[in-house]
Amino acid sequence: MKAHEDMYSLKGRLQLLMLFRVLVAAFFLGIATVTQLRRSDSFLTPHLIYLYSLTGTAFGLTFIYVFVLSFLRRFVFFAYVQIIVDLFLITMLLFITGGINSIFAFLYSVEIIAASICLFISGGLFAATAASILFPLLITLEHYHVISPFHIGAITATGYERESLFFPIVINVAAFYLVAVLSSFLTEQARKSRQQLQKKQVDLAQLEALNEKIIENMPSGLVTLNQFQQIITFNRAAEEITGYRFAQTYMKGIEDIFPGIATAVSSHSLLSPGSSLTAGFEMAFLRRDGRSRWLGFSGARLKDVSNDEIGTILIFQDLTDFREMQEHLKRIDRLAAVGRLAAGIAHEVRNPLASISGSIQVLQKSLQLDTADKRLMDIIVRESENLSSLISDFTLYARAEAPGHERVVLYTVADEVIDLFKNSTECSPGIAIRQLIPRQITITANRQQIKQVLWNLILNAAQAMTDKSGSITLTAAAVEHGFEPAALKSGSLAPAAGAPAAAWVVLKIADEGCGIKRSEINSIFDPFFTTKDAGSGLGLSIVYKIIQEHKGAIDVESEEGKGAVFSVFFPV
User: Fold this and answer.
1) Contacts of 513 (CB under 8 A, 6+ apart)
2) Number of helices (H) and strands (E), helices first, in the chain?
3) What is the rounded distance in angstroms from the CA atom of residue 81 to the CA atom of residue 69?
4) pLDDT tens profile 351-376
């Protein structure tokens, strides 16, 4: 790659040399014309014809060089050829303009400098050596009258013809090599400086690319704002978290993408001039696709190399799964506390309650009661039964995982639960239950607990139908490897130890009821949480605990007014 760049750099220098040659040739053509006009002689005098010819030769060679350069690949050899030809043309110019008395001997030095620029020290020394041969040869031949140079008025100098031959040769040869050394030194220094600059530019480009890659591959979202709170940087993680592309956010106000963020950070003074690093803060965020997320932010003022403030940096992360995990842990703590309470209640309350209920029933049979007294005793008996039912739920919730897991055919268990439910007082005539579970799907579970899960979910679906009409649909399917329930992705539940990863049976119970409010959906599995007038609020808590004991997961999807779908995942 470096050789390729050097080759084209030399080609560019050769093109500049050819341009310089054309300018010099044009200059001498102009000199010849001006000289002839001053002398008022014919434009076709012999010495001018030679000068015209020399100038035309320079033009012609340049055009040939341009043509050859487009096909040539050996630029170094071609450069040496041009240097030799140029030195020969300079020698001819000196011969035409007076030989040793010509004022154009300085052109040798000019050509040596050009050679140093093109080929550095080797080119400079080569041109100096060639000039040290051609110039002494010219003046020696003239000194011994082998040749007789032309003399063009006003462009010749006198003085050398009466001096010894040694003096002009030594002076000019020394000048040639001195020019070669000095010009080569300068060009070498320039080349090294250029190479160092190119290396620095490459290093800078690599550093910029590395910084871009670091920013793009950050797991956290990064947003950079200018002084007007407009977005100028939006990395890949920010795109994935928010659902917006960088092109959709560039130069948009931060409030356009994160509504309410200015209010959220006002207490931290992050967007105020002079502030530095801010403490973290959290806020709700609605993705571009409409999904609700919870984001955690931190940031700092952005400053330039002069320590002047030029904007703001915001770093944020999606904390939705983390918060769901926190809610799950809180729910587990609450369930554990309720479990301990249930064990105490079952032990301390059930027996006295049974005695109270039995005593009242005996008194009802043995006493002659009026209507009011009988109604009061009926209330006592009924409420005693409700308390007994509540304690039974507590007991079911508090006891450890039932032993005796077996292969359970979901279709058969669902049929049994549906028959029981249809014959219960909870089922209204307007509610239709559709059982679409394939007969071949089985799971390993405790049969009674699975019946309890199905009963509570069907009962919950029926109670969600405020007008006592609609359909409840049960479906099930085997899910292939590679699938993972959302509850496990968020860390809410752990898969069964030793079970194949992401091999599941999913059971879905869908209803056409009133749906669940967004504000309540995270609380429906909490003990005693209920939106109904009647009920203990333990039904879904028991479902959640049973699914947890089976190392499964449960998800719910609902939109208010459009029903709900409970998905229960059992590991295979």
Assistant:
1) 461, 463, 464, 465, 466, 470, 563, 564
2) 15, 12
3) 12
4) 677 777 777 777 777 777 777 777 77
Q: Are 509 and 472 in contact (CB under 8 A)?
A: yes
What pLDDT, in 10s, does the model give residues 206-226?
A: 877 777 777 777 888 888 888
Of 451, 474, 447, 450, which is closest to residue 461 (Cα–Cα)? 474
Question: d(Cα 400, Cα 546) in Å, to the nearest integer?
Answer: 10
In this structure, the answer to whether residues 375 and 477 fall within a common structural domain is no
77 and 46 in a common domain: yes
Tokens of 502: 């992401």
Q: What's the CA gap between 269 and 252, in Å, rounded?
A: 21
Nearest to 19 by CA among 100, 117, 97, 93: 117
Name which of 287, 214, 201, 180 is nearest 244 in CA terms.
287
Which tokens hold the place of 244? Answer: 């917006």
Closest CA to 527 of 384, 394, 329, 400: 394
Structural contact between residues 231 and 250, judged by C-beta atoms closer than 8 angstroms: yes
3-state DSSP call for residue 222? strand
Q: Please state the pTM of the whole predicted model.
A: 0.42
Spatial separation of the C-alpha atoms in residues 341 and 345, rounded to whole Å: 6
Query: 205 in a domain, yes or no?
Result: no
Report if residue 527 sits inside a domain.
yes
Please indicate, yes or no, if residue 213 is contained in any of the structural domains.
no
Task: Quote the tokens at residue 378.
Answer: 């009926």
Phi, psi of 529 (to 5 degrees): -85, 125
Q: Are 310 and 412 part of one and the same domain?
A: no
As a whole number of angstroms, the distance between CA 432 and CA 153 comes to 123
Number of domains into which the chain is organized: 4
549: amino acid identity, one letter: E
**Taking Cα atoms as reference points, which of 175, 195, 47 lies closest to residue 111?**
175
Instruction: Please tell me the distance from the alpha carbon of residue 554 to that of residue 331, in angstroms, as a whole number.
Output: 14
Q: Which domain holds residue 60?
A: 2-197
